[in-house]
Amino acid sequence: MTGLPAVAAAFALHAVIPALPAMTLAVVLGLLAANFPGSGTWVAGRARPGLDFSGKHLMRAGIVVLGLKVSVPEVLGLGWTSLLLIAAVVLASFAGTYGISRLFRLPREASLLIATGFSICGASAIGAMAAVRRIRHVDTVLPVALVTLCGTLAIGVLPLLTHPLRLSPEVFGAWTGASVHDVGQVVATAQTAGTSALAIAVVVKLTRVILLAPMVAAAGLQQRFVSRKASRKRSGDAAAGLVSGDGAFPPLVPLFVLGFLAMVVLRSTGWLSPGWLDVGNAVQELLLGMALFGLGSAVRIRTLLHTGSRALLAALASWFLIAVLGLGAALLMIPS
To answer: Do 299 and 34 form a contact (C-beta atoms < 8 A)?
Structure first.
């Protein structure tokens, strides 16, 4: 399968350097493959259909299996105050990132994808939102590159702030879970402060992940309303002989999001043994790794440098905003 050797290389590098998440390495390897003269020809030509398939369809399959990471009892164990704080951070992060992106004159679709990825769960959320809003696969490339870059930045920066800010391991873990984008990046960041930090970071992060479903459902509802309105206009124009009246409404909630929720329910029942959960985790990382390699392989550095400067500044400003919001929520969740 296209990209499988590169994903294997990403896992191998992660095994050697655990601080580098395998998913981040998959994106980077895809980017390198697209921009070296020899491999770039292969990526842009014969391999492109397979890589595009990975970036679109394997991403959706990976999102479904991602649901096996989320246990509703563990999430509820945080308490309602913490849950409300996390939801508030997600909503404020989404609105703030969207506003910042528009302030930097980024297109609406790019702003929507960047806001979704930064506020919920990185590239997985970007893929889900792009599907429900019917945004072209190629338009997800820049948001994925930005969320990967800023998540990697968090791995290096946040641990350096632990001592200056005098954060306990538990507060640092909650901060990491509330503000770092991808699950793998959360693990890589939080584990620097020990097991207690890692435990709370993962639960807080997965609470953000479960908000993917209602966020995407709301976007689907809004898109359906817009499509219905446009369809009525087309029908009127068709009656006047101007255009064809054909049109299809997008699904309110895509099947892969329903699959994600089904996997959350299955995990929450406690029926699956740790062995099966380990298998699910391996499958999910393989699927998302191949999807992210496919997305990374669509990035051309020259084009990114030429067109992405405003997007990069918007992403860095959003990253700072979310870090501040996450820190505030962590301090409220776990008083010193």
So the answer is: yes
If DSSP codes are grouped into helix, strand and coil, which group holds residue 135?
coil
CB 320 within 8 A of CB 179: no
Q: How far is CA 275 from CA 260, 263, 268, 271, 334, in A?
A: 20, 16, 15, 11, 32
What whole-number distance in Å separates Cα of residue 208 and Cα of residue 92? Answer: 13
Residue-wise pLDDT for 139-189, tens only, equals: 888 898 888 888 888 888 999 999 999 999 999 999 999 999 888 889 889
Backbone angles phi and psi of 112, in degrees to 5: -65, -45
Q: How far is CA 108 from the centre of its chain?
A: 18
How far is 143 from 108, CA to CA, in rounded Å? Answer: 12
Geometric angle at alpha carbon 147, from 96 and 99, rounded to 5°: 20
Query: With contact defined as beta carbons under 8 Å apart, do 85 and 332 qualify?
Result: yes
Considering the entire predicted model, what is its pTM?
A: 0.83
Residues whose CB falls within 8 Å of the CB of residue 226, separated by 6 or more in sequence, listed in order: none
Closest CA to 97 of 87, 111, 110, 85: 111
Query: What are the structure tokens assigned to 60, written together?
Result: 């959706």
H or E segment to which residue 161 belongs: none
- Whether 6 and 42 have beta carbons less than 8 Å apart is answered as no
Supply the DSSP symbol for 243: S
Average pLDDT, the chain: 85
Q: Distance between the two ends of the chain, CA-based, in angstroms?
A: 50
Nearest to 319 by CA among 163, 191, 227, 182: 182
- d(C-alpha 78, C-alpha 207), whole Å: 9
Query: How many CB atoms lie under 10 A from the CB of residue 25?
Result: 26
| Residue 77: C-alpha distances to residues 72, 87, 327 (Å) | 8, 15, 20
241 DSSP assignment: T
